Amino acid sequence: MEEELKTRLDAQEKKIDAIYVSVEKTRTYFLWTIIATLVAFVLPLIGIAFIAPWFLQVLTSGYSIQ
Asked: What does the longest C-alpha to C-alpha distance in the chain come to?
């Protein structure tokens, strides 16, 4: 009985280690997904903040009276 219990505990330990590795890979994947999403969302907003005033100035300059 003692040997069977030790065998089961060893098998569970191997499975837990495999689960830990899988969870760490998943956590890293989610982290990089969040970073990529933020970059894909924030960088265009920064670009718009710099380009929009210039674009509006060019657009409205055609309507100005000289």
From this structure: 99
Distance between CA atoms of 13 and 5, rounded to whole angstroms?
Answer: 12
Measured between alpha carbons, how far is 19 from 17 in angstroms, rounded to an integer? Answer: 5
Say how many Å lie between the first and final Cα of the chain, rounded: 99
Q: Give the C-alpha distances (Å, rounded to integers) separating 26 from 17, 40, 51.
A: 14, 21, 37
On the question of pLDDT at 35 being above 80, the answer is yes
Q: Which amino acid is at 27?
A: R
pLDDT grade for 65, boundaries at 50, 70 and 90: low
Which ranges in 1-66 belong to alpha helices (H)?
Answer: 2-61
* pLDDT value of residue 60: 87
